[in-house]
Every structure is written in C-alpha cells, then in structure tokens.
Write a sequence for this structure.
C-alpha cells in the first residue's frame, strides 16, 4: 500500500528498531525559507569546580525542532531520532545499506546456524504466508510452499482439509555481555520481548508487516531472544530484533500510558552514551555522560555533557554554529536553503560541511496506462521512454543544483547499494540516438526544425499528424520548478513539447481517483520516492497499479502510478520479496529486476537528493550514511581538539 507522507527530511524509521528499511513512500522535503535569526542562548551545565578538576567538556547540537516525545513508539521525527541516538546506541547501525550489529554479538544467518528453516504442521484456518507474500489463513485454493520449497516454482495449491507441512523461519539474536541500562540494571533478552509486547499492544489492531509475520518472540535465556516467523515466511530477517525497553521501570505502566508518561516521553531510560538530565521546553534538552555505558572502558563518550538546542529556522541554526553556541547542526535543521552560504563558509574555514546522498530519489514517472481507456498515452512504448531519458542531461541537472555532488541512479536501487547491478543500462545524454528512437516509434520530425513538436505517423491511438504535446506535472517547492523547467527545455530540443504545470503536494499526490498521479490521469509527473534498505521493486508491480477495487488488488492505494505492467518483472519482483537473502536466487532476481527496469523505464531516476549538516571545523568522528536517517549514529566517538589529532 502507498502511504503519502510530507516530511521535513527524509528518514528511515523502524517500529522494531532504531532503523529499519520500510515500504517506500512518495516524499517531499519541505525546505524552510530562511528568515530572520531568532535569539539564541548558549546553555552550559552547572558544575562545581575543584582545585584539580578540569573544566567539563560540553558538546552542543542544534536541532531544527523540538520533539513532542522521545518514546520509541511515539514521535518519529528526525529531531526525536537524533536525540535517541544519544540514549540508545543501536541496536543496529546501517552503513551504506548494510546492517551492522551494535549491542548484538552478530547478525543471524543460515550459514552460521543461528537462522534456520524448520518444518511445521499447518492446519486449515491457521495463519501463514502464501506464495504471493500475503498474510492469509490456509484454505482451499491458497497457493503455498510445502516444506523444503524455497522458490516460486515449487508452490502448490491447497485442495484438501488435511494439515500440510510447511517451513518456518527461526532467527536467534544474542546480546553482547555486560550491557546495562543507565541505572545499572542488566539489559536482558526479556527487555526486547517486553518491547515486542508493548508494540503489539499499541498497534496490534493495525500491525506492521513485522508484527503480522511474527508467530512468536521469546527469550531463551538472559542473552538470547528467538524470533519465529509464521509458516511460509521466507524473506529478510536480520533486523527482526525489537529495540529493548526497560521493563523493570516501565513494566507497571500500561502501554497506552507510555505514550504520555514522563518516564517514557521526557526522560526515557537507555543504555547509550548519555543520560537525559533536564528538558527545558522550548529551549533545550541536557544530558550527561552515562557511567554505565558499555563502551565506557574505551573512554567513550568523549564529552561530559551533551546539549540539544532547539532552533526555529535554518538561518538561526547556522548563525548559532558560527557564534560558537552549537558545535553541530543536525539534519533536522534543514540547512538546504543555506547551501551556498554553507559552502562559502566552509571555503573560508568557518565550518565543515557534510554532504551525502540521501534516501530520497527524484524521478519522473511516465503515464503509461491511464485509468481512462479513452485517453491515449504518449509514453506507452519503451522506445519513447528511452528517448526521453537520452534527451535529459541529468548530469547537467546535478551540476546546476549542487555543483555535481548528487549521484545519478539508473534504477530503484541506489548507486552505492551493495546490490546495485552495474550492468543495468545507463542512459547518457544523447539527443541523436533519442531522435532515431522517436522516429522508429512513429514520431517524426516533419519539418527538420527541433523547435517544433514531432508529429505522429502510424502511432496506435493517435491520428496521423498529432503533435507530441503533453502536460508535465511537477511540485512547486524547493528546487523542483527549476529542475522541471530545465527538463522542459531539454525535451523541446528533441521535438517533445511539454507544458509545465506546477502543483502543491496535496494536489499532485492526492489519492485516486481524483488525484492526477495516483488517479492515473497524467502524462508525465515529477516527485520523489524514498529508498529502503531492501530494493523497492514493489513500486512497479502490476498488483500495485492504483484503480477501483476489486479489479485492482490495492484499490486506489497502489503505488504504481505509471500503470506499468510486465509479467517477467512481476515474477522476478515476487521472487525477490519472498526469497531469503542468503540464497543465490535472491541476488539473481534483484540483478534481473534492475536490467528489466532500466530497459522498460517506467520512470527515469534523475538524482539522489542530498543530506546536508554542518559542524565546527575541528569536530571529528562524524559519519553521515546515505541509508541512515540520523547523522548522530557515532555521537559517542565525536571529539574536537587533541582527540582529533
């Protein structure tokens, strides 16, 4: 199902862990226009000095907003996530789309034996996962995979009333020894089970995929937790560990009350590098070093105190950095409108800028199969779509926007993703080849003048002589009008006349049947999707085409606005979504999907949007990852001065 979200920054949020890949959603980064700087304050914790004590070391981070809550299953804004990086270390970090355990000994795997498939008897009516990846009850006509079947090809249809034998995925996670909550109480596997129970109590009526596909989650001993999937589930599992919550403190409070209680929303107990001391509404949150931090023996964290300050505008955050009132400006401050100023200040040596490709990829989607069968499509042939890709100089777009810092993907898989297939077609700017493709598709240059539109000659659905003129929909925020106008001008040089129509996000991405994009009433549309850790092939499955139910399985909630449909693509995508990543068949399917996408081009990836943060020039240890929502994943190791030499 498609979920439309307008957010201030692109994040990867998980309800089971601090970071987890999810179904992608169309996104808009609402870039706040710079305004007058708000008054700033510099907060320094009070410390009583002694004759021999060194002055306390204080790290100050400027946020773009004040979170409403710090409860793990409450506020999911980027500001809240950044603060939680200081009080919870892990349980996972993500580096370049690869998951790294933080408080676990390792990730489970089939090869190591801490993940395995076990046969289980399934009775009629029992919940299971069918061959299509759906959460269903076993009944006549349901297609399922019998035990030892790990691909689509060996699935069978249930015809009787007898129980069947299916495989069930089991994954075991083992905590590192010696991890304690900040109050000194041992953190155990039971705290992770408690977190699972809290999440289920809060959201069990509308469960996430993880909850739906979990049959049991239990502690085997103090250090080990076991996740068991429903019969038939064969997909990703390495992050099916629930972020621990302090049962010894919160256990007497109902899950519903945890949404509002001060112990969970204002001062949640953690195991990370810092402990919350004070929250001054509208101003700051102050924290101090956690003496029970599991990496304290390494001398971490490097600061005695940490302060999160709330700022109102990107300009205010940047001014606070320059004034020495903060050491780091978080992603939540949305510095994008200040990019040129930030880069100039870096050149002057006044700050250090960190630019990294993010999880949002700007793209243009073709209206391949309109909802109205009477509406002809200019882009129903892949040769035309390929020609459009060669008419757009995507590198020039990147150079114009961010001096060439942006990465240009070829498919729905990010450029730096380990599963990216380098053999997928890359479309260079090539107007001459584009012209030949358009001619082949029946769109001819009748007068030799590229400034006039091409006309149809034998194109199905179009009367001969119809000019290639269409509507190009784009959002009216941020840099997008500039990008869209450059695309219009590029297409005009190929004899393709686009009339640009700028719309607000609510109109452009409104639900069908009335919304132009997800109502499939458009020719060409520009917007952004968010990458997930696992390749998002489902965006272009036939089952995701939005339309009236039951003809379209997801109704108007489908995400495949283009209407693209290809049986081979559907097959390979389904194989990807229902295969264990440990198996070669998974990698083969992901590779083939990228080749198919780049050949068929239901959409043209334009560029990966950037994440921008800034810090004092001598701050070290900062790591910004394309797939991780927060830039504070390594905050325990940040330092400045002698520690960076």
């Amino acid at each position: 199902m498609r979920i439309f979200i307008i957010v201030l920054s692109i994040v990867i949020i998980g309800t089971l862990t601090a970071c987890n890949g999810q179904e992608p959603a169309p996104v808009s980064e609402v870039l706040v226009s710079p305004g007058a700087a708000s008054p700033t304050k510099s907060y320094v914790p009070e410390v009583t000095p002694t004759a021999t004590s060194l002055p306390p070391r204080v790290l100050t981070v400027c946020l773009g907003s004040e979170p409403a809550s710090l409860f793990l299953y409450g506020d999911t804004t980027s500001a809240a996530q950044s603060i939680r990086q200081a009080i919870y270390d892990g349980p996972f970090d993500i580096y370049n789309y690869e998951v790294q355990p933080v408080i676990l000994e390792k990730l489970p795997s089939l090869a190591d034996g801490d993940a395995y498939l076990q046969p289980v008897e399934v009775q009629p009516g029992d919940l299971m996962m069918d061959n299509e990846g759906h959460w269903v009850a076993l009944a006549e006509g349901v297609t399922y995979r019998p035990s030892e079947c790990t691909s689509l090809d060996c699935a069978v249809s249930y015809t009787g009333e007898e129980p069947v034998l299916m495989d069930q995925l089991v994954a075991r996670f083992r905590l590192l020894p010696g991890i304690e909550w900040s109050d000194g109480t041992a953190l155990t596997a039971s705290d992770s089970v408690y977190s699972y129970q809290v999440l289920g109590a809060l959201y069990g009526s509308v469960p996430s995929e993880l909850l739906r596909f979990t049959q049991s989650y239990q502690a085997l001993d103090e250090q080990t937790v076991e996740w068991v999937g429903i019969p038939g589930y064969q997909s990703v599992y390495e992050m099916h560990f629930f972020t621990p919550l302090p049962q010894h403190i919160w256990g007497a409070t109902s899950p519903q009350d945890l949404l509002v209680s001060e112990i969970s929303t204002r001062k949640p107990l953690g195991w990370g590098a810092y402990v919350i001391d004070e929250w001054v509404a509208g101003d700051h949150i102050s924290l101090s070093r956690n003496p029970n931090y599991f990496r304290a023996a390494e001398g971490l964290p490097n600061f005695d105190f940490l302060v999160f300050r709330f700022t109102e505008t990107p300009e205010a955050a940047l001014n606070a950095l320059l004034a020495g009132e903060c050491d780091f400006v978080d992603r939540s401050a949305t510095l994008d409108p200040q990019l040129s100023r930030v880069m100039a200040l870096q050149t002057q040596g006044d700050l250090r800028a960190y630019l990294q490709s993010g999880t949002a990829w700007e793209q243009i989607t073709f209206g391949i199969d309109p909802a109205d069968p009477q509406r002809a499509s200019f882009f129903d042939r892949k040769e035309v779509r390929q020609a459009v890709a060669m008419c757009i100089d995507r590198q020039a777009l990147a150079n114009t926007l961010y001096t060439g810092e942006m990465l240009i993907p070829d498919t729905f898989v990010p450029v730096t993703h380990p599963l990216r297939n380098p053999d997928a077609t890359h479309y260079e700017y090539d107007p001459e080849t584009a012209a030949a493709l358009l001619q082949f598709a029946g769109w001819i240059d009748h007068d030799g003048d590229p400034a006039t539109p091409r006309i149809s000659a034998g194109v199905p659905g179009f009367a001969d002589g119809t000019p290639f003129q269409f509507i190009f929909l784009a959002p009216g925020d941020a840099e997008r009008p500039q990008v869209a106008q450059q695309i219009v001008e590029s297409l005009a040089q190929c004899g393709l006349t686009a009339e640009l129509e700028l719309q607000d996000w609510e109109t452009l991405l409104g639900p069908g049947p009335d919304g132009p994009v997800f109502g499939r009433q458009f020719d060409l549309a520009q917007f952004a999707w968010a990458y997930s850790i696992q390749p998002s092939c489902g965006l272009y499955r036939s089952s995701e085409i939005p339309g009236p139910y039951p003809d379209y399985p997801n109704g108007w909630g489908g995400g495949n606005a283009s209407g693209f449909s290809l049986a081979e693509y559907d097959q390979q995508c389904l194989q990807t979504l229902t295969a264990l990543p440990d198996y070669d068949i998974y990698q083969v399917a992901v590779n083939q999907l990228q080749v198919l996408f780049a050949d068929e081009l239901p959409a043209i990836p334009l560029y990966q949007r950037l994440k921008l943060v800034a810090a004092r020039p001598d701050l070290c240890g900062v790591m910004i990852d394309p797939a991780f929502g927060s830039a504070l994943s390594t905050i325990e190791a940040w330092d400045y001065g002698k520690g960076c030499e």
